[in-house]
Amino acid sequence: MKYLLSPALWFLSASFPIFANPSIVSPPEVLTKTFDVKNISKLDLSVPEGVVQIQGERDLEKATVTIQKNKDVFNSLCNVQVENVGKTLVVSITKPAHSALIKCESEIYITLPAEIYMNLKSEFGSISTKGTRGEISYDIKKGNISLIGEISALKGKSGDAIIDIQGLTGSASIEGNAISLYATYLVVQRSGSIKIKAKSGTSQIFMPSDSIIAPPHLETGHGKLYNEIPTALHAYLVSSEVKETGDLVIKKLLK
Asked: Of 21, 126, 131, 214, which has the fewest CB atoms closer than 10 Å, so is most exposed?
């Protein structure tokens, strides 16, 4: 038998084609917009899916929004809105009507002034914030939430979610389906409350060691309450209502 190639090369070409082209990955389309921070006191974000990272900066002159869209997961029919409306920075991605199979997944990076109120909405994915000061509200159906900063008030609603909050300085209301909550306070709370309501999940609360709270309350089908913070009547209230199974753990924050 005559080989067009040497026996060794013929074997290699049969097992691993010599002239096979490597797969080509298209670079993402990138949209970037900047805004004068003097005109921004609120962020209103609404996206169907993807990753969102928000950074708060002091002494910032320009706010920046960068959206990376990969055509494999971001359809050309997806509508993108990035604009300043009054004092609100609006970042919105919407799907066309009756388009359950269309994906509008993106990566969004936002740099904002540190003092900001944020209203964050997402269907699926993850949202993370860092370095901001002010109130935050969020609504996410499924995904991860990481909020790091000085959060003066928090109102959150989710489906299944892992929630990491570092920097509470005021009251919080957290509602979800199956949640895993980790919340840390920066300062002693003299009044107010944190109220948790979920179908299932464990909540871990960490507070400064000199904190005093009202006798904590856990209402659940099956779960345990653990508290190492001193209690007194009419102090800061920590309560959790879990329909099925869930623990409430309250610990001193180690310095």
From this structure: 21
DSSP state of 210: T
Pick from 194, 128, 185: nearest CA to 161:
128
Nearest to 146 by CA among 130, 132, 131: 130
Global confidence as pTM: 0.87
Q: What pLDDT digit, counting tens, does each position of 180-221 carry?
A: 999 999 999 999 999 999 999 999 999 999 999 999 999 999
Integer Cα distance of 45 and 30 in angstroms: 18
Based on its alpha-carbon atoms, the radius of gyration of the chain, rounded to whole angstroms, reads 24
Place of tokens 């900047």: 34
Separation between Cα atoms, residue 107 and residue 70, nearest integer Å: 9
In terms of Cβ atoms closer than 10 Å to its own Cβ (0-12, 13-18, 19+), residue 208 is: middle
pLDDT for 33-42, tens place per residue?
999 999 899 9
Amino acid at 162: I
| Residue 60 contacts residue 134 (beta carbons within 8 Å) | no
Is the torsion defined by CA of 58, 64, 70, 76 positive or negative? positive
**Cβ pair 219, 196 in contact under 8 A:** no
Q: What is the distance between the alpha carbons of residues 28 and 20, in angstroms, rounded to a whole number?
A: 24
The torsion angles phi and psi of 200, rounded to 5 degrees, stand at -155, 165
What 8-state DSSP symbol labels residue 37?
Answer: G
Give the H/E segment covering residue 165.
strand 117-168
